[in-house]
Every structure is written in C-alpha cells, then in structure tokens.
Amino acid sequence: MMAQLIDGKQISAEVLQEVASEVALLKAEHDIVPTLAVVLVGEDPASQVYVRNKVKRATEAGMGSIEHRLDAGTTQSDLNELIDFLNNDPEVHGILVQLPLPPHLNEDEVISSIHPAKDVDGFHPLNVGALASGRPSLVPCTPQGCMIMLRQVHPDLSGKNAVVVGRSNIVGKPMAALLLQANCTVTIAHSRTKNIESLCRNADIVVAAVGRAEFINADWISPGATVIDVGINAIDVDGKRKLFGDVDFESVSPIAGAITPVPGGVGPMTIACLLLNTTRAAKFQLD
Questions:
Q1: Is there a contact between 271 and 12 (Cβ–Cβ < 8 Å)?
Q2: What are phi and psi of 225, to 5 degrees?
Q3: Quick check: is 27 catalytic?
Q4: How far apart are the first and last CA of the chain?
Q5: According to the model, what pLDDT value does residue 176 have?
Q6: What are the tens digits of pLDDT across the range 214-268?
Q7: Is 16 helix (H, G, I), strand (E, B) or coil?
Q8: Cβ–Cβ under 8 Å, residues 15 and 23
Q9: Which candidate in 118, 119, 121, 246 is catalytic?
Q10: Looking at 98, 118, 173, 246, which residue is catalytic?
Q11: Cβ contacts of residue 279 below 8 Å, gap of 6+?
Q12: Contacts for 262 with CB less than 8 Å, ≥ 6 apart
C-alpha cells in the first residue's frame, strides 16, 4: 500500500489564499500593502529562479514587491547600506537577502543587519533566540512549511517521536525547536550520529534535511511513519537536470504512512510561508 502523498502544491495554494485574505484586510482596515523587498547579489541561476518565483507569488497575493539586483562585486559596505535603507523605509515590511552570497560577503553580518521585525527569513539572532525560548517571532520558512504539512497528517503531534536528520541553522535546528513546541520527543541526527538508521526506524516522524540525494532508504523507515523530505538535489541524468530529495522516494513510499514528494512537496511551502511571514511582519509593525 502506497503512502499518503502530502501535496505541497495544494497546501501552499491554501496558505497563499490565506495570505491574500490577510493582504486584503490590511489594505481595507489600515490602508497598507504588505511589501517584500528582495535583494539578489550576483548571477547564481538557482537564486534567480527562486527570486522570480517569490516575486511572482507576492504579486499574485496582492502584495507589493521590490527587487534589488546587485552586481556580484558589490562590497559589504554597499550591501549593508542598502539593508539600512530598507530597514528605515516604512513602505517595506519584509526584507529577504537571497542566499548564498558571493564568498567575499559575510552572510552572518548581513543577516544580523536586517531589522528583526522585517526579517521574514527568520534568521536574525533575536528571532532565532525567540523561537528557541518559545516566544512569538518570525519563524524560518521551510521548517514552518514542514509543520503545516505535518499537521495535515497529525493535527495533534503531542508525544510523537520525531527525528530530524540535519542540524543546519536554516532547517534542522529551527525544525527541532518547532517540533518541541508541538510536544514531540525530538532527536537531531547528523554526520557524527551513531546508529542513525536505528534512530530513524524508531521514529513516528522523520524530517530529512541533510542535502544528500536519496540518502535515506526503506531500511531507515518504520512502517506507517510520516516522512518530510526537505532535500532538493539537482543531478544530471542522461544529459538533463533532475531533482532528487534526500529520501529514496521509490523505496520509502510503499512503507511510510505519509510522505512528501520532490519536487512538489516542501519547496512550494517555503515560498508560501515567506509571504505569510511578510503579512505577519506588516501586522507586527502596526503595533
């Protein structure tokens, strides 16, 4: 029996509908248009696609969007100056600097320079700290999207045994924090973890965010477990670029109870949650 497919395209469409309703309400009641400023440095092809999709979805939801495309040779001081300008622009409610940046730029410095109230990626140290301590904050988009998808399968996550494979600041750590807030018992597994396969086999929920194509196979998954595949790995197959997740979908889907596909799973949710964060930021800034 095949696993239930957790359809990120459908769920993200529902989130974007919610965003559009919030945007309309903010326009009607406060005469403001939630506006996202996206900063892209350099010519990275994948980043250009991501930015184009983000701006397109923002426009469809009735939001404002501003693009700043900077040369790959942009200096740290010039980038910091632009962020400072956006921080002080009352018409801008969310700021996103597309990562990765060219190697001569300091990502930590850039992330820390964005005002926490406009940090729609949820990466600023103050937002990270608020999430860790269970306080209201802007939450990283990909883990937030994963939680929305999980609740489609498990409206009550209390007591579930969850394993997060990967410990990045962008996905693994905030994902674990959100699962803890939902009263899961959480294990973070990583490259130094011993007996990682057996840990995953004992889990009700496995979140794969390790960045290695088809790393997790059927031997890792308990029958009926829910599998969230965050990985997006582009690999050449017969001269064509194909996307693979961190999970071997073909072997795992007959065993799992529910699973996200790649593509069409977590990816669309990340963009939807970015726009959801922008509307939330706009509301925070009203107070």
A1: yes
A2: -70, 155
A3: no
A4: 51
A5: 98
A6: 999 999 999 999 999 999 998 988 888 899 999 999 999 999 999 999 999 999 9
A7: helix
A8: no
A9: 121
A10: 98
A11: 19, 22, 23, 26, 34, 63
A12: 229, 231, 232, 243, 244, 245, 247, 249
198 annotated to bind ligand: no
Q: Is 98 a catalytic residue?
A: yes
pLDDT tens digits, residue range 124-171? Answer: 999 999 999 999 999 999 999 999 999 999 999 999 999 999 999 999
Question: What one-character-per-residue DSSP string does 172-185 give?
Answer: HHHHHHHHHHTT-E
- Residue 285 bears catalytic tag: no
Average pLDDT, the chain: 95
3-state secondary structure of 279: helix
List the strands of the sheet with 94-97, edge to edge: 64-70, 35-41, 94-97
Query: Can you tell me the distance from the alpha carbon of 137 to that of 186, in angstroms, rounded to the nearest whole number?
Result: 21
CA–CA separation, 118 vs 37, rounded Å?
A: 10
- 57 is known to lie in a ligand binding site: no
Identify whether the C-beta of residue 61 lies closer than 8 Å to the C-beta of residue 19. Answer: yes
Contacts of 88 (CB under 8 A, 6+ apart): none
Q: What does the alpha-carbon distance between residue 133 and residue 127 come to, in Å, rounded to a whole number?
A: 10
Whether 280 has a binding-site annotation, put simply, is no
CB 233 within 8 A of CB 196: no
* 83 annotated among ligand-binding-site residues: no
Residues 6+ apart with CB under 8 A from 174: 122, 128, 131, 139, 140, 143
Domains by residue range for the chain, with CATH: 31-115 (3.40.50.10860), 141-267 (3.40.50.720)
